[in-house]
Amino acid sequence: MNLSELMRAFSDESKCRAYLESLRWPSGVTSPHCKGAKVYRLVKRDQFLCASCEYQFSVTVDTIFHDTHLPFVTWFLATILLCEAKKGMSACQIQRSLGIKTYKTAWYLCHRIRAAMLETGKPKLDGKLEMDETYVGGKTKGGKAKGLTGRGTDKEIVIGIRQRNGDLRMFHANDVKAGTIARFIKENVSKDVDVIFTDDFASYPFAMERAGVPRTRHKTMNHSKGVYAIGDIHTNTIENAFSLFKRGVRGTWHHVSAKHLASYLDEMCFRFNNRKNPYLFRDTVLKLISSANLEYKELTRSAA
Q1: Are 87 and 248 in contact (CB under 8 A)?
Q2: What is the DSSP-derived secondary structure letter of residue 224?
Q3: Contact yes or no for 253/265 (Cβ under 8 A)
Q4: Which helix (H) or strand (E) holds 230?
Q5: Which residues, in sequence order, are bridge partners of residue 49?
Q6: CA separation for the pair 218, 181 (Å, rounded)
Q7: pLDDT tens across 42-64, in order?
């Protein structure tokens, strides 16, 4: 579904609400409290009443839409814009494009949609994988003059794993120690993986050993000596994904705080992994329905 089709299909609130109801209850409305199927519609209040437990509810209860004051049309438009923008879309642009009154409201809207994009229960990656790390943030004082362009800077660390012709995973990490890298491998890589390609960073061999990846399934490129590809041994695919994310940071969001970096990575991975999905809008709305509400105070709470 493109933007023009969405505007024709969901031109008013009643059509949006009916669509949410059809996605949430494809076999008929049931009470979220007792699962009772004998439910009456309270038309004037856009609510339902369960005959069994007398619980009154709407289609937004227990979803990320709970207590929203924004029209569903705005939610739908923001969702498709975030889904279709290859390098993301800033809250400022969402505010301008959709006529949202304040930046705070637009920022909160984007983060709630972003939170729903978190992919859980993902299968482990197998086949041929590439793994690398990159650094996100502002310029370090001294920069290249002090040789500080990657490790050793005060930038945020992002670790990425990309299955060739498959999914992308990116994570905000505290460090690039072997134990940290091994944890991401154990959580995301199948034991039947064919091979993992990395650069010659010293932590990778120890991480592979801790994660139970045989040495024969770990191939490296000696980037420090200017070697970047020998046949199909390279990390160009994951580096391209990093480049796409960094273009989003520089050209779209301009600033991404360390606290919310993981959310932006989740958004980028969700969009990338669903780039060929013809039902992307529908599947994203389904995730919005199945996601619990994210309160503003929780989103802005200082890290402990």
Answers
A1: yes
A2: G
A3: no
A4: strand 229-230
A5: 40, 56
A6: 14
A7: 999 999 999 999 999 999 999 99
